[in-house]
Design goal:
- By secondary structure, the protein is mainly alpha-helical.
- Helices cover 47% and strands 9% of the residues.
- It has five helices and two strands, in the order αααααββ.
- Strands 1-2 form a two-stranded antiparallel ribbon.
- The radius of gyration is 14 Å and the shape is globular.
């Protein structure tokens, strides 16, 4: 998993975005530490994006939702190009009502 993450971070798709590399590292770390089910938007806002713990209001600050959506797009571009043959695929599922995005890591599906 560490090699997969390092490959993604070094790719052209991610090289220019420290913010998305940080979010990806945080989400993968949560997955590896078996904390993925406990992720909360407010915690990510504070720990990844430096928002104030006492002042963050997800109703008025959409940083986590916006950057998670952008991260999914960046991952899709990576796997369509440089990561096409990757042994593992890191994904961040879209948030569903009342639940934050959930990271996952799976082998790629076979295509014929």
């Amino acid at each position: 998993m560490a090699l997969a993450l390092a490959g993604i971070e070094a790719s052209r798709a991610f090289r220019g975005s420290a913010r998305h590399r940080a979010l990806l590292r945080y989400l993968v770390g949560a997955l590896l530490d078996d904390r993925a089910e406990t992720l909360k938007e407010s915690v990510i806002a504070v720990e990844v994006f430096g928002r104030s713990a006492s002042g963050f209001d997800p109703q008025h600050d959409s940083i986590v939702r916006v950057e998670a959506r952008r991260l999914r797009g960046r991952l899709a571009r990576y796997y369509a190009d440089e990561g096409r043959g990757a042994a593992l695929r890191v994904a961040s599922a879209a948030r569903s009502r009342g639940r934050p995005a959930r990271p996952s890591c799976t082998p790629p599906t076979a295509t014929t």
